[in-house]
Specification:
The structure is a homodimer. By secondary structure, chain A is an alpha/beta fold. Chain A has a single domain, classed as Alpha-Beta Barrel (TIM Barrel), CATH 3.20.20.210. In chain A, about 50% of the residues lie in helices and about 10% in strands. Chain A is built from 16 helices and nine strands. In chain A, strands 1-4-5-6-7-8-9 form a seven-stranded parallel beta sheet. A two-stranded antiparallel sheet of chain A has the order 2-3. Chain A is globular, with a radius of gyration of 19 Å. Chain A starts with a helix and ends in a 6-residue tail after the last helix.
């Protein structure tokens, strides 16, 4: 098995498509409700927003899964909606209902009032948390910073909350494309600034979550999501803090457009479980690393099944460099932490040697 | 524009990939809450189940969109969960929460007790409605009968209700594949019997809705959904009532597996809007007709945008035989019926002539 120095290296090496001693693994929402220690800190914080916006508490829950499991990366505990909150939309969470904005955008006039917030002032709690986590991690594993995609942020900014089909934001994009493009451009610059600030504070990899891009038809996905993911990639490539920090893009459900996502020049693509990694790898032509893609529901099955399904995902990717093991979506609250330990162990053990 | 006899023929000709005078169009959930006349009948019925299980009322709402619009097909007003209800699971609808079963399946022992219901007794209200609708349609347009897929029915039968991720049924499939295969085999035979009975009663096309197959990883989709869609196709091909009735399969979100779906030998595949019809057509190699695939959210946009997006879908398919225009998912309750009229007119007018 790997020693400590391997654990500190594997994830970044895989993102660069370099050989590794074992496939690195981390888990989306690894600092989350399935962990009793997370639930305890969350209770102490009083609210989800308080937890995300207090650097000491965010640091504490970020480290919890790292202390418990042999994970190969930490990801900052935060929320993608902190950026539009910093733009003045008034984020709050309603228990059992999810995030809501007090002042959703109602049209072009609202968009015209928006500006790109300065992360070191209005998102200071994010960069403070990054600095704190880096110090507390003491080099054990790299830290991932993240943000939401311009399109996904726009979904919440216009709907004002989550939605089953995001029909209102789609209709806005169709009826007022110029206004939507103005909004997406502001969002892209705000997200790039937030990611750059996280890199400056010490984040060693960056990830953009495009949770709702996959709800768009391919032509609209290209126009309203990929275009702005490409803008972020380009801004970060020319950014003094972020230029050498690998960027991972994850558009859930957008498997029809993997080629376009790879064209952005990102280091890696997140992939959900509705496509095999073998097909995803062929589609991106080895131009990026891939991160994924076990169905999160697998963690509710028996330990034997978990081991078998881990092997299947590793076999699907095959013996090439450039695979970061992950779920295809966030871990759910009903998972037994013991099952997570078995998954991580299986990934490290079942590793196919690289050529 | 088309005369009455064209309207009566177009849909079935397109399913057989024969030349047509204009692309036929119908709309998933066309008999639904966006229509004031539907809401009036629904109120009169008292409950959704009463509406679906009273042939005269089901016939009335089935015909409403046909009277109002130049649609090229009617689809029976019914519900996919009537089949498991007939198997004894106790279907009921909770206002604002959707369908629930009183007696969901809790394991192998529950599966062992299930049998294939005789549609002419326990689903008599379905076949009675088919006969009534055929009489009232007087040959204006063909009537589509339908059922849920074995996998999708199993999702509700095991979860007991809808679910965001259907994690419980997936874990059951992973942990107890033999029990799941027993259930899916019973469901496939029950669905085939129900579809055969609808054909015998006069349905001129049949459709299977696999609403949740697309939540499965491709290997599991093949094992737990496609295999049983193929079983249904094969049973119907050898069925005296259904053998000449075209069968449409629609697995929402399963675009990674279109080839496998086409291999079942069905007449047509429904396609959601997250893939272009051009790519879908290339993937199935022209072996089936295609039905779809406008994003339902488009109907909330302006009339001008609706016309443009209709043209885009028609252009995506191109000038080949075998296209039935539809949305990529059901129409939503907030759509203005005038927008539907414009969509239908645009499909018929913007028609690209076949070679």
């Amino acid at each position: 098995m790997a020693d400590a120095s391997d654990r500190s290296n594997r994830f970044l090496r895989a993102l660069r498509r370099e050989p590794v001693d074992a496939t690195p693994v981390w888990i989306m929402r690894q600092a989350g409700r399935y962990l009793p220690e997370y639930r305890a800190t969350r209770e102490r914080a009083g609210s989800f927003l308080k937890l995300a916006q207090t650097p000491e508490l965010a640091c504490e829950v970020t480290l919890q899964p790292i202390e418990r499991f042999e994970l190969d990366a930490a990801i900052l505990f935060s929320d993608i909606l902190t950026v539009p909150d910093a733009m003045g939309l008034g984020l709050h969470f309603v228990e059992g209902e999810g995030p809501k904005f007090e002042r959703p955008l109602r049209g072009d006039a609202d968009v015209a009032k928006l500006g790109v917030p300065d992360p070191e002032t209005s998102l200071r709690y994010v960069t403070d948390a990054v600095r704190l986590v880096r110090r507390e991690l003491r080099g054990r594993v790299p830290l991932i910073g993240f943000a939401g995609s311009p399109w996904t942020l726009a979904c919440y900014m216009i709907e004002g909350e989550g939605s089953r089909d995001f029909a209102r934001v789609k209709a806005f994009a169709l009826d007022e494309p110029a206004g939507m493009h103005r909004l997406l451009d502001i969002n892209a610059r705000a997200v790039a600034a937030c990611l750059s600030a996280q890199a400056a504070a010490g984040a060693q990899a960056l990830m953009v979550f495009d949770s709702w891009g996959g709800m768009l038809a391919p032509v609209m996905f290209e126009e309203f999501s990929v275009r702005y993911l490409a803008q972020i990639t380009s801004l970060l490539r020319n950014d003094v803090h972020a230029r050498d920090v690998p960027l991972i893009l994850f558009s859930k459900g957008a498997n029809a457009s993997l080629e376009g996502l790879a064209d952005t020049g990102c280091a890696a693509l997140g992939v959900d479980w509705t496509i095999t990694l073998d097909e995803a790898r062929r589609r991106v032509g080895g131009r990026t690393a891939l991160q994924g893609n076990l169905d999160p529901a697998t963690l509710l099955a028996s330990l034997e099944v978990i081991r078998r399904e881990v092997r299947r995902v590793l076999d699907d990717f095959g013996s090439h460099p450039g695979h970061v093991f992950n779920l295809g979506h966030g871990i759910t609250p009903d998972v037994d932490p013991e099952h997570v330990a078995v998954l991580i162990d299986a990934v490290h053990r079942e590793f196919c040697d690289h050529p």
